[in-house]
Design goal:
Number of strands: 8
Helix content: 10-25%
Strand order of the largest sheet: 1-6-8-7-3-4-2-5
Strand content: 25-35%
Mean pLDDT: 96
Order of helices and strands: EEHEEEEHEE
Low-confidence stretches: none
Shape: globular
Distance between the termini: 28 Å
Radius of gyration: 15 Å
Number of helices: 2
Oligomer: single chain
Length: 152
């Protein structure tokens, strides 16, 4: 697959999220629980997500991933318990779109990393995946995931 990589300027987006740790093989269970907790909280406070769900990866240790799992929201909202109020940071980010199954996404990471290196961009160490369609309603070959590496 060919990837179109580019620098985008993003506006900071308020978000509600929670942190989790786990192995890559456990992601479906971690994400199911996390999005369920977040969705239930949003429902209790009478709010809805203001965009597609995301994950921020704070490391790339596939046996012990450090994750922030969340939803963007329209305005800053209070957190509660493990749910944190925060934001998806604004500023410059290297970006590409992966279309296809999640288990093939590593090719997009490789392409974006090579493009960044070739074009003199250095990441902050955090990367974001934004899930633009629902895997329960979309065939795997049509799943769209935007990958963002905030840059220094």
């Amino acid at each position: 697959m060919s990837y179109q990589c580019e620098i985008v300027n993003r506006t900071a987006q308020p978000a509600l999220s929670l942190r989790a740790r786990g192995a890559a093989k456990d992601l479906p269970a971690i994400l199911g629980r996390s999005y369920g907790v977040l969705g239930a909280y949003l429902g209790r406070i009478g709010q809805q997500p203001a965009g597609a769900p995301f994950i921020a990866y704070y490391n790339q240790d596939m046996q012990n991933l450090d994750l922030e799992i969340g939803f963007p929201v329209a305005k800053k909202l209070p957190g509660q318990g493990e749910i944190q109020a925060g934001e998806i940071p604004g500023g410059k980010a290297a970006s590409c779109m992966h279309v296809g199954p999640y288990d093939k996404i590593s090719a997009a990471y490789e392409a974006l990393g090579q493009w960044m290196q070739s074009n003199g961009h250095q990441g902050t160490g955090v990367c974001y995946e934004i899930y633009l369609n629902d895997p329960q309603k979309t065939p795997p070959e049509k799943l769209q995931t935007q990958i963002l590496f905030p840059v220094k």
